[in-house]
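User: Sequence in, structure out. Go.
Assistant: Echoing your sequence, followed by the structure tokens.
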Amino acid sequence: MKTNPVYKRECMVSARSFKLALVLLIFNGILALVALLNMYSALAQVRLTAEVQYTGFLDLYMFVAALEFLMLILIMPAVTAGSISGERERQTLDLMLTTCMTPVDIVLGKLEAALGTMFLMVVSSLPVLAMVFVYGGILFSDLALLLCCFFAAAVFMGSIGLCCSVLFKRTTAATVAAYAVTAVLTAGTYGINFLVTYINQMRIGEYLASAESGGVSGASGELLYVLLLNPIATFAQVLGRLAATNQSWVQVGSWFGNQKEGLVITHWMGISMGIQMVLAALFVFCAVRAVEQRRS
């Protein structure tokens, strides 16, 4: 099977770099430290009360997974934002375009290399997540769903950084743009729903509005579906599936008022990950087209 030459080169450079080993050490060190401190606290509570609170170990799994997901969406745009712009700054992009490699090979090779680094980080952190399996409560299907969420978020965030890397000439500008888009998709989509919900709740005619809209009072309405673009909202639903409680953060339909149950809210995780993968494909397509224009 033919290996993408860009991906092969990036893997060789990463394998020989001390930076990757240092990142893995810091990444897993933080996760292991948090997990061990949390487990020590839970065991200390057992010695005091002689009762085993299994919810504490579930909280440990959720906390470590949330920390890992947060680090992933923060690192991925930075890794891919300098992929193409860095080649342009080193004046090697034009040389790559003169070879037999197509723009698709260049763009996908850079994305695959970044995903390979993220995959290595996720796999290396599995022993920390597997500590919870000692006490039970987590199924392998839950872990598989979590890994799918990680993969979808990594591809989505990586494609954003890659597209910005092609559109901006400087790595600094590409990185800033990638984080700006990430902020809009995460904090922006949440903020606009919060603002609309707050305004609706402050209206004098709230009772009449709720009567006309079928009993939905002070909700953000159709704007809730903007959160389908938010990887954090998707991840929250994955954790909510594990929690299986009546807390408000578990169901996205109760975040901003009481939304009607429907097909989208019921299958939020699958639909949101599917939309994010489609958008990732569009970002990659835009990046390929931009590189093709430079080649021509």
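User: And one key feature?
Assistant: The mean pLDDT is 82.
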